[in-house]
Write a structure and sequence with these properties.
0% of the residues lie in helices and 40% in strands. The chain has no helices and 28 strands. The protein is globular.
């Protein structure tokens, strides 16, 4: 039985891409203030950043790589002011950056922290168009950097420079599809993910080292979303592991293990599992094809965490005794290697994997991708060892093929459309 936590805090917790800093609202419920956490030292510690007036409940915060914290304040419904907070001896310094005005109240949202740790972006999604703003790191305050057709949600960075941004876009009444936005080319849009023409496909996480994509789609069963994985730049089928389907709980991925260059099947995925009894942590990687359950620390800031390159999942928590805690969860031991031989996988149908369905991903022109020879078909090389020859996802009976994914810097960008 999986261990559960009771009553985790609900305030947001944002972490820089390099894992050095984090930010959250601290203090009492009636007088919250920004709080910066330092995570890359021997022990984590928090620095309060209070001002003369408390922050409004739910105020969005985002840490930068230099230790400053970006705060977004709603001024008069449609006007949003941005400032940078930083410690100054016994007090708190504040650098106003300017404001952004949008047509709808409360409709401007911060995107996830940029990989470069210097810039910060916000997004306004209108009925027919979506506008992207550079709100920190610019030259003259907030700048409008792109305007896209359709209504966009989400936000996942695909590189380590903060140039390529993936958004989930809906055009009119059509399905949701993930597109890539090139911020250095005026918001040039490229189709990134289309499993079937009618499916709703959303990107949840991406790893710049391995090319692993974790997504949610209703392609196997329209109207019912399932978790899947794929590889950036690959035309191989998307895979929908059966082990990630829990009938009585919601499963949400929140962190990927970095450093697994060109090995998407060895990239660990941390998941938040929510059920009626509470929340706990799931650990999974494509090569193992099974979901492991682990207890979360008491007071876990549920859905927050970072995975180090050496395989340690670090989970932030807050309790009365420990107002700034960081628990470490190491990778589990490798399971016994499965038997291999000419009969391995002989009972499977060609093109089907042992972890569930595969749905052919569509190429740019709309034709189905070729037969699956997916990554993970060969023996696993990491601590969570995968199956042996002939048991890979998308391989034919008795085959043992391994597909090397396309590195991010070489991933093809096709079907570009003009911005706006």
């Amino acid at each position: 039985m999986a261990a559960r936590t009771a009553g985790p805090p609900t305030r947001g917790f944002a972490i820089t891409a390099n894992g050095a800093y984090a930010a959250r609202l601290g203090g009492a419920e009636d007088s919250p203030y920004a709080e910066r956490w330092t995570l890359d030292g021997p022990e984590p510690y928090a620095v309060p950043l209070p001002l003369a007036r408390p922050e409004a409940p739910g105020t969005p915060l985002q840490p930068l790589a230099d230790g400053r914290v970006l705060v977004q304040r709603r001024v008069d419904g449609q006007r949003h002011a941005f400032s940078l907070l930083y410690p100054t001896g016994p007090g708190t310094g504040e650098l106003p950056l300017g404001a952004v005005e949008v047509p709808a109240p409360g409709a401007l949202t911060l995107l996830p922290p940029s990989p470069d740790g210097v810039r910060a972006y916000a997004m306004y999604a209108g009925p027919d168009t979506t506008t992207l703003w550079l709100v920190a790191g610019g030259t003259f305050g907030p700048e409008r950097v792109a305007e896209l057709r359709g209504r966009c949600t989400g936000g996942v960075w695909l590189d380590r420079t903060g140039r390529m941004l993936a958004l989930d876009r809906r055009l009119g009444d059509g399905p949701v599809k993930t597109v890539t936005v090139d911020l250095e080319r005026g918001g040039e849009v490229t189709r990134l993910l289309e499993i079937t023409p009618e499916s709703n496909d959303r990107l949840l996480l991406a790893d710049a080292d391995s090319g692993l994509l974790v997504l949610r789609s209703d392609a196997p069963s329209p109207g019912h979303d399932r978790l899947a994985w794929g590889v950036l730049g690959s035309a191989l089928p998307a895979r929908f592991p059966e082990c990630l389907r829990l009938d009585d709980a919601a499963v949400t991925p929140f962190a990927l293990r970095p450093g697994q260059a060109l090995l998407p099947e060895e990239c660990g995925v941390a998941l938040r599992i929510d059920a009626a009894a509470g929340s706990w942590v799931g650990l999974w990687r494509p090569s193992e094809r099974r979901l492991r359950h682990a207890a979360a620390p008491r007071g876990w800031l549920a859905g927050s965490g970072l995975w180090t390159a050496d395989g340690v999942l670090r989970l932030p928590y807050v309790t009365d005794d420990s107002p700034c805690g960081l628990a470490s969860l190491a990778e589990p031991a490798a399971p016994p290697a499965p038997p291999s031989g000419p009969r391995a996988g002989a009972a499977r149908q060609p093109g089907a994997g042992p972890d569930g369905e595969t749905v052919p991903e569509r190429r740019a022109g709309g034709e189905p991708a070729g037969p699956g020879t997916g990554p993970g078909a060969g023996p696993g090389s990491g601590p969570w060892r995968g199956p042996g020859p002939g048991t890979g996802v998308g391989t034919g009976v008795g085959e043992a093929k391994v597909c090397r994914p396309v590195p991010l810097r070489d991933a093809p960008l096709t079907d570009r459309e003009p911005a706006g």
